[in-house]
Amino acid sequence: MLNTLKPQPADKILALMGQFRADPRETKIDLGVGVYKDATGHTPVMRAVKDAERRLWETETTKTYTALAGEPAYHAAMAGLILGDGLPVDRVAALATVGGTGAVRQGLELIRMANPDATIWVSDPTWPNHLTILSYLGMKTRPYRYFDTETRSVDIAGMMADLSQIQPGDVVLVHGCCHNPTGANLTLTDWAALAALLEEKGAMPLVDLAYQGFGDGLDADAAGTRLLAARLPQMLIAASCSKNFGIYRERTGILLALTPDAATRDLAQGTMAYLNRQNYSFAPDHGARLVTMVLTDAGLRADWEAELEEVRTGMLALREQLAAELRQLTNSDRFDFIARHRGMFSRLGATPGQVEKMRDDHAIYMVGDSRLNIAGLNATTVPILARAIVDAGV
Ligand code: PLP
Ligand code: TYF
């Protein structure tokens, strides 16, 4: 029976990790997978997370099951981090998930249960896993214009024009901040226009928030999400703790559902717990517990925020350096978009041939669509990349 299986296409980003490892050149530079790395190329365990782990080891007396939807303390801490002070507690349902990917998956399954005919509108381009999960679930999908390949910024006019076709009951999947793969993000004015459109059309947003704290800061990165939450009766938020807590392999995420009233909240909460039970029963607890400890202990939280801020400003400095280097080499400002982008990624706008050339000639690995991970650089490798970009004729 199993011999009837059809081979599935590999994940290009993960495949690139393997190619990089296999490259014997000592000067190789990994700008592929979206994992934060410090200047030495190491992905550290954050200080506050390590402290929380120590405390947990000392105090944890049982590892019996938690609640099916996850611990209420985790829900509250994460809802506070994402939605801020004005949190409408009685309208929020929450579900601990297997990473941010699990939150996206459960969110889409929840939508499918509520409205199997919903069309899910996705940015063009978007994180490839959005498309493969949607296809796997058999959900209707349509792209909306997002990236202006000339300016390398958001094509807001194109986006709004495409989304003017959304129907009541449709869902718009938006990246909360630090858009993957482009690095180009909505302004608050854009978010307000999106909120007005969704309200007018009776459509719902699903916000994928995987990089809160990596762009303009913890609150600024959630500002668009909070604006939607303040203006719309309902929305879904799929958030990841992988990046901002550096706990990738712990698989920690959350799905939040903002509902019009407490009765719908209860309905959504019950259905979300049902979805966990059908898919894997309980989500992993270790990462969620660490996150809860860090967010609710003043000392741990201050230390976490400080370290996250170092990570964020470090990436911004690399962006500035790369843009400056390219300004000098090309005697133009056409790469200044790199300094305007936010998060780990920028889409350079190179052709697949140019990406290949940078890999062959300089051992620089970026994703085939010319997405580069800024955190894969350091002050020494920035000039090497800038030279390679110019050499490749980008
Ligand atoms: N959404 C986006 C846009 C991402 O880039 C990622 C990956 O890092 C995720 C969701 C989910 O990440 P994870 O499942 O590792 O928490
Ligand atoms: O886009 C990235 O690089 C990150 C990490 O199947 C990632 O989101 C990449 C591929 C994948 C899961 C996570």
Helical proportion, percent range: 40-55%
Q: What order do the SSEs take from the amino end to the carboxyl end, as H and E?
A: HEHHEHEHEEEHEHEHEEHHHHEHEEH
Integer tally of domains: 2
Radius of gyration: 21 Å
Shape: globular
Largest sheet: 7 strands, mixed
Strand arrangement within the widest β-sheet reads 2-10-9-8-7-3-4
How many β-strand runs? Answer: 13
Overall structural class, as computed from helix and strand content, comes to alpha/beta
- CATH class type of the largest domain: Alpha Beta
> Separation of termini?
49 Å
> Average pLDDT, to the nearest integer?
97
The CATH architecture of the largest domain would be 3-Layer(aba) Sandwich
Tell me what portion of residues adopts beta-strand conformation.
5-15%
Question: Poorly predicted ranges (pLDDT <50, ≥5 residues)?
Answer: none
